[in-house]
Amino acid sequence: MITLKRINSDNSDFKKLAQELDTSLRYYYKGEQSFYEELNNLEKIKYAIVAYNEKRKPIGCGGIKKISEDIAEIKRMYVDPTFRGNGIATMILNELEKWAIELNFSKCILETLKTKPYAIAFYTKNKYSKFPNYGEYVNAKKSICFQKKLN
């Protein structure tokens, strides 16, 4: 059984999973690692979720960064590779969206890399639609951005 826990970015399990995510992304970032790492600063993520397996091991995470009064940015989505394919990422994303609604956000936005087709498919499957790159990602040629209106 998977358990989801709402926490903040100071949580040690969240930090550990975010480090694992950063390690896995180095392959994709190539020479732009410092640009992307700066945008993924954990201090700006006020709301986060960690998924735990039945042995209480942290196996996945995701976070919310406030962009404006009504827009939340989904950040740091990650599931340990040995637990992928079991719907854990969807559970995390659904809980982040539910929390965003409770926080009165009306839309979620996010960025991923064009070289990650599995991430693009995941967000598309979860009803996110492509939209023009925003904020710091406007000129980021490797990035692709998505949005979803919340109910």
CATH class descriptor of one domain: Alpha Beta
* Beta fraction: 25-35%
Q: Kindly report the average pLDDT value.
A: 93
Poorly predicted ranges: none
Give the CATH H-level superfamily of one domain.
Gcn5-related N-acetyltransferase (GNAT)
The CATH topology of one domain comes to: Aminopeptidase
**Coarse shape:** globular
User: What oligomeric state best describes the polypeptide chains here?
Assistant: single chain
Count every helix, treating DSSP H or I runs of 4 or more residues as helices.
4
Any guess at the CATH architecture of one domain?
3-Layer(aba) Sandwich
Order of helices and strands: EHHEEEHEHEE
Number of distinct beta strands: 7
The spatial strand order of the largest sheet comes to: 1-2-3-4-5-7-6
Taking Cα atoms only, what radius of gyration do you get, to the nearest Å? 14 Å
Helix content: 25-40%
Sheet with the most strands, sense and barrel status = 7 strands, mixed
Instruction: Give the CA-CA distance, first to last residue.
Output: 28 Å
What does this structure look like?
This protein is of the alpha+beta class. It has a domain of 104 residues: Aminopeptidase, CATH 3.40.630. The protein contains 4 helices and 7 strands. Strands 1-2-3-4-5-7-6 form a 7-stranded mixed β-sheet, sandwiched between helices. Helix 3 links the parallel strand 4 and strand 5. The chain is globular.
